[in-house]
Amino acid sequence: MKKLIAIIVMGIGLASCDLNRLPMDAISPETFFNTENDLLLYTNSFYNMLPGAEDVYNEDVDNVVKNSLRDELQGTRIVPTNGGGWTWGNLRNINYFLANSGKCPDKNAVAKYNGIARFFRAYFYFNMVKRFGDVPWYSATIEVEDQDMLTKPRDPRTLVMDSVMADLEYATLALGATTTKQVNTITKWTVLALKSRVGLYEGTFRKYHTEFKLPDSEKFLDASIAASQDIMTNSGYSIYKATPETAYLKLFSSDNAIAEEIILARDFSDELQVYHNLNYYTMTASYGKPGLEKKLVNSYLMKDGSRFTDIKGYETMQFFEETQNRDPRLSQTIRTPGYTRIGETAQLVPEFGATVTGYQLIKFVSEPKWDTFNKDITDMPIFRYAEVLLNYAEAKAEKGTLTQEDLEMSTKLTRDRVGMPNINMVNANAKPDPSQAQMYTNLSGKNAGVLLEIRRERRIELVMENFLRWDDIIRWKEGQLLTKQFKGMYFPGPGNYDLDKNGKVDLVIYEGTKPTVPGAQLLKLGSEILLENGNKGGNIVVNGHITKKFDENKDYLYPIPKQERLLNTNLTQNPNWE
After folding, report:
1. Residues in Cβ contact with 397 at an 8 Å cutoff, skipping those fewer than 6 apart
2. 415 near 181, Cβ under 8 Å?
3. Could you tell me how far CA 277 lies from the centroid of its own chain?
């Protein structure tokens, strides 16, 4: 039976939005915080801060595209009146706990649960800094009469991120005794996985965003490397392996998170009627018809490790040809010829009613019995070992200390899962991939070639997971990627198409009168499907009528809401959002 973290604590209300209000109307420090169970119940409420299922799989940046565009991609964000992510209720709850947990006489329990609380405070502030840059640092609860604290200005990003790392150091030590794998509970390994992520993000953000003049980028890269090494050396986590043709897919379609690789997951259960909506999301037109974008599909290497984009004529390859002999993760991420649903034998082609690019997602998709609206139970990974390995390789490469041995310890393991050859550092740096270099215009130096390969590996391995792609684009200062035209499959023009080459017409692209072709999908050119060159063919064009914009001078941060700056006149606005 699945074990769910108790996120509703016996009717005790934990939600409030003011920094200076008691977070629990039904309790007081005098009647609570007396036992380890009290501390457990309170800290269980913090798990609500973690991404829900839709936050994990509902990526829509430039890996997965839909029939609509987020404001961030259209350049239409405005300064909101209120909200906009500037919310502090979770922090208030955490600091209230830390102020009162010491009332419990069991000091070992206090240390343990304070460690969990400080993990969540670090997690909270990391997300705030990613969004807003400088933010006020609060390490204690605030009384209603304390106007100085309530109206304090934003603290420098440097102070806040140093405080985040201090919280993670504390949590690592406090949870050091809990070294076993607990896939639904914060452990030392969860803390180190977050530290690995935070260090890489902040280190590379400071390196590439020279406009902010932030120091100590290498200090954060070192922290990421050290945290990753600890997990790699001491945790016992490994890359989950089955057969190369199924291992990657099985990792994400398992009802229960595979603890061999998953460090932390969000739990779902049929027995307890806790569900998400992923199968339905990928099977219907109701959620934007998500599909992989063409440049990502082109990024998948050939099975022998050679580059697909080095093949003459790759730009005009049709679906069957372009999916042959590729990195097996491609056929475990989207429907390719021969695809069958888990537990079934019927071979299925992409359904254009459910994918706007033609590259229909299957990552996370489980058995058909879970296809009903909001009725899926696969666990959603939040941290996994593969990300730690990729963090390690990238941080070492960014520092300039990467060796081939480092790649053997990291990227080789994700490649081994699917039977792919590892990155060769010397070759990658000697002959950087032109198609990758064309995408990442803000990258140079002696390790540019191998960094391109690590970025390729990261993009392929972590697609659809926790909006990591958005974070990557922001920290690398590659916002220009979001302004490119999103595309899908290539078709030479109107006609009948046998997508899996089994002798049966699967798709008809037509002009004029709708034809009758039994069993085929029918798409009218110009309305139901758009090609770059109309009836002369080309790649599917997605949202071609919408102009995408990214302002390099402001869009890497979000604006502070108007109402917050009226209430606290000491809050400054982010650059160029006035």
Report:
1. 447, 450, 451, 454
2. no
3. 17
Convert the pLDDT of each residue in 187-214 to its tens digit. 999 999 999 999 999 999 999 999 999 9
| CA 112, chain centre distance (Å) | 28
Residue type for 276, please? H
How many angstroms separate the CA atoms of 42 and 45, rounded?
Answer: 6
CB-CB contact of 473 with 457 (8 Å): no
In whole angstroms, give the CA distance from residue 260 to residue 269.
20
**Is residue 21 classed exposed, middle or buried when 0-12, 13-18 and 19+ CB atoms within 10 A define those classes?**
middle
CA atoms within 13 A on the CB side of 4: 17
Q: How confident is the model at residue 7 (pLDDT cuts 50, 70, 90)?
A: very low
* Residues 436, 438: Cα–Cα separation, whole Å: 5
Phi, psi of 514 (to 5 degrees): -65, 125
Burial of 85 (0-12, 13-18, 19+ CB in 10 A): middle
Evaluated on CA atoms 521, 525, 530, 533, the torsion sign reads positive
Question: What's the pLDDT score for residue 30?
Answer: 72
Predicted TM-score (pTM) of the model is: 0.95
Give the count of beta carbons closer than 10 Å to the beta carbon of residue 60.
19
CA dist 88 and 109 (Å) reads: 26
Q: Can you read off the two tokens belonging to residue 176? A: 């050091």
- Lookup: tokens for 24: 């629990």
Residue 51 has pLDDT above 50, yes or no: yes
Query: 383 in helix, strand or coil?
Result: strand
H-only helix segments in 45-86: 53-57, 71-74
Longest CA pairwise span in the chain (Å): 80
CA–CA dist 538, 540 (Å, integer): 7
Tokens of 17: 């939005």
Residue 178 has pLDDT above 90, yes or no: no
Spell 223-248 as b/e; 16+ CB within 10 A means b: bbbebbbbbbeebebebbbeebebbb
Element containing residue 560 per DSSP (H, E):
none
Residue 302 main-chain phi, psi, to 5 deg? -70, 160
- DSSP for 100-139, please give it: HGGGSS-HHHHHHHHHHHHHHHHHHHHHHHHHHSSB----
d(CA 308, CA 301): 5
Q: How far apart are CA 203 and CA 165, in angstroms?
A: 12
Instruction: Indicate the SS3 state at residue 554.
Output: coil
% the chain with pLDDT above 90 = 92
Helix (H) or strand (E) holding 495: strand 495-497
CA distance 293 to 541: 10
Average pLDDT over residues 144-168: 95
Where b means 16+ CB within 10 Å and e means fewer, 297-316 reads bbbbbebeeebbbeeeeeee
Q: Are 525 and 537 in contact (CB under 8 A)?
A: no
How far apart are the C-alpha atoms of 274 and 466, rounded to whole Å? 20
The number of residues making up the chain comes to 578
pLDDT computed for residue 180 by the predictor? 79
Distance CA 291, CA 390 (A): 24
Residue 473 burial by Cβ neighbours in a 10 Å radius (0-12, 13-18, 19+): buried
